[in-house]
Amino acid sequence: MSRVCSVCGKGQMSGNQISHSHRKTCRSWSANVQKVKVKTANGGFKYEYVCTRCLRSGKVERV
What we know:
Blueprint: E1 13-18, E2 24-29, E3 33-39, E4 45-51, H1 52-57
Antiparallel strand pairs: 1-2, 3-4
């Protein structure tokens, strides 16, 4: 699963793009996820995708 937050599971959302004449076409919004080096439970590290909200709130510990 790429581009999905490994902490909260936030990923891509879909919906409609609505023009001025109210015609609807499909579009998608990507979550703001960053690939960061995260400390694991056994003291090592690995690279994971984490959303910026989880990074800002301190839910993961960066190396």
